[in-house]
Automatic annotation (TrEMBL):
Range of residues in the leader sequence: 1-19
PANTHER family (alphabetical): PEPTIDASE S9 PROLYL OLIGOPEPTIDASE CATALYTIC DOMAIN-CONTAINING PROTEIN, UNNAMED PRODUCT-RELATED
One Pfam match: Peptidase_S9
Protein name, per record: Alpha/beta hydrolase family protein
Domain spans labelled Peptidase S9 prolyl oligopeptidase catalytic: 361-514
Keyword annotations: Hydrolase, Signal
Amino acid sequence: MLKNLLFLTCLFVATSAFAQDTLKFEKALTVASGSRYGREAVYTDLLAWKMANNQLQTPIENGEFSTGKNGEKVLWKAITADSKGRFSAFSRRAFQTTNNPFLNPGGVDRGSDYIYLTYTSPTAQTAILNVIGGNSLFFNGIPHMGDPYASGYMNIPVQLKKGVNELYVRGASIVPMIIVNAKKLLIHTDDVTSPSIVLNEINGILKGAVTVSNSSLKDYNDLRFKTTLNGKQREIAVARIAKLSMRKVIFEFDASAVATPGNYNVELQLLQGNKKVDEKVIVIEALNSASTHKQTFVSNMDGSLQYFAVTPQLNGWKPNSALFLSVHGAGVEAIGQAKAYKSKDWGTLVAATNRRPRGFNWEDWGRKDALEVLSLAKNQFKPNAQQIYLTGHSMGGHGTWFLGATYPDKWAAIAPAAGYASLKDYGSADGKIPDSSQNSVERMLLRAGNQSDVPKLASNYTPLGVYILHGDADKVVPVSYARQMKKLLADFHPDFSYYEYPGGEHWFGDQSVDWPAIFSFFKWHTIPVDSAVNHIDFMTSSPGISANYRWASIEQQEQPLQYSRIILNRDNKQAMITGKTENVATLKFALTSFKANTAVKITLDSLTAIDYTTRSANDTVVLAKSNGAWQVLTQVNPRDKNPMRSGTFKEAFNHKMVFVVGTGGTAEAAETNLNKAKYDAESWYYRGNGAVDIITDKEFSAAKYQQRNIILYGNAENNAAWKILLKDCPIQVNNSQITAGQQSWKGNDLAAYYIWPQQDNRLLVGVIASTGVAGMKAAYANQYFAGGSGFPDFMVFSADLPKAGSKGIKLAGFYDNKWQFDEKNTAKP
């Protein structure tokens, strides 16, 4: 076998701080594996399936990988690195025939390629693996996050075994390296989150974050960062860094001695006790108060450090001025976005980050980041509550369409530039297939992503001013997307403006975002106060994403993740609320426009009127539909689904979640659980600039981890935290079967993703469960961190999922509002 393995040539690179060998690859094999990943839970990956089921043969040149639909052989082919060390899988076109079922009519499906490399290590040792490019990878069978955007900062600690080590990378173009270090704890400065020093305003104790890798075989809980800037020192404890892992960690520095603009060195020392284990220098910029700058904050989502950028108001910010939230395009840093705008004399501009330059398409956690930054900016700059505006470019144009439709009461006007409205229409085949060709499971999964279908929510734009800007020569996001929305708005919208920039490509200078007409348009739009809004027309796909509009809130749906709509009229003089609802089970009204002890008559859907007497000037009333009639709900069960805890599965990755890994059972099961948790943590770091605590089930206690969502890995027999958190859950998983309500499936190759409410009224448990190792390996793929992907409350599947796609899913669906199974909202093959 060894004569068929490909060996690498090693290059030696030494630094003054420590010795390291950087091992670069020269040759590899590649195959069009037929893998397919989209923005939903269904995926196919034949190589991953073969690996999980011990059917993957060691690749050899011209060796057969699989047989295509027409009986032709799909073969491994040799490729060679270019002068930059890059392997390009799609350079093998000459080796393929037109009947290859994995070739699209337009060329190679690059997502289907795998590249295979090997390294023969003279000894068992640890190292750092850095693969630039590639969507995901397996190193000696262990899954890791790739680097699809070629960022270069995925420094993944790995265990090298003596002899042959195998690397499979899914992707079309990669630069792989293995770094063997003398030091096991390393500070990496290729992914720094840092603030600006703003003289006389933001120049005290500031926070930054860097990645630290631990390529040792022990956990570190006792590390500290010591920083020095202009003679000022600061120390802070470092979060736990588990063995063979990387983590973005926070440091602090004292900027109080900085008095003039310029670049300043911050010395970082990583300490263990009195021992310095590594040190680096980063550069921080000091600016005057009129300059566009960065501010950092600790995110409520996961406790990680994030940043936003600010273009200050001209001549200094003034309370009661306007606030502009700008959302950037794919690959654009928030600070670059903010710098494209000149300061305005009537307001401050703030650019959120979407957690990363590509992040989550301003959906999911990108949506949460935008709202968190908006809240921080309101607290800091004290703007006029009626002068809040939203704009963005490219992916940020989509973000503007999405956030504008999802939260229409937050903005006076919006201005999408070079944007696409729906992810289902742009850059993805998901959702484009006619419903008639989808099975019920696929439709259920697409339904879980309904929030992404922005045109369905277009009526929510009615109260907003909308300005659409697009270059008519845009080849990245064709102008047809703007024209689509122009046509849609023209049918009903009373207040929108549209401009196509003649000859404008995707970016035609700073005016692509800082377009004077946009801000002129903004200036004559304001948000009406609630007391002046007596007509409401609001739609949502889920109360867990957006529930409130003005004085009404959709608390629960009849059909989860189907569109809900309320059309309401309020008459303060007559003390009446009338209207109609669609797909609404529970509705809440704020009655602040009515005086205390006022008899209010509420008539919904032409049903029997409800007479309700207000108790105070701040009274609210909750109405529930039961047996075709609306009734006042005198007592709300906080454990039921509600806007604070509504699902879907992805909602569990919030509230400073902690990953709890099952260690019981066999050593292989425990290792597989841990591998999956670490893969998820790497993915969360890469896609969301995030940081996660990973602990074992033996370390978990409910008291210690209060006010945090819990993500469990394993099952009832190998995760000791299971009986604490899931004893009353209708989905149970052990080593031999999965039971979901009245249904059950037997075998050691099953897996499930699902959520369950904790005992409090806000938090969730997210579960990644399997009956055996093969099941957990089928669960390795984690498209739930892809922005806009659709995952329902629960799904049960077998290890055949990577091979059979949706046919491998046993059950998918949503709980009812009592967190019980509802046949109307479940799907089976």
